[in-house]
Design goal:
With 72 residues, the chain is an all-alpha fold. Helices cover 56% and strands 0% of the residues. The protein has a domain at 24-72.
Length: 72
């Protein structure tokens, strides 16, 4: 088990991931869901070491959350 997996408890996501996404994309999406749910900033950046697809999942989640916040 990776260190990342130990720090991110399993929980039901607040925003479901897009259908048909890869496991790597889903990892970024799920981390963003956990991060935002626990008070993280919607302006956050990902670590440079993340694969592009994981970064895309994280950033897409934050972009969706920002759009929802702007229309609320």
């Amino acid at each position: 088990m990776s260190t990342h997996a130990k720090t991110m408890p399993q929980q039901k996501m607040q925003k479901p991931a897009p259908e048909g996404c890869t496991d790597v994309y889903l990892a970024g999406w799920a981390y963003a869901d956990w991060y935002v749910t626990n008070g993280g900033s919607l302006d956050a950046d990902t670590p440079d070491s993340w694969p592009e697809e994981k970064n895309n999942g994280f950033c897409d989640y934050l972009a969706q959350a920002l759009r929802e916040k702007a229309t609320a």
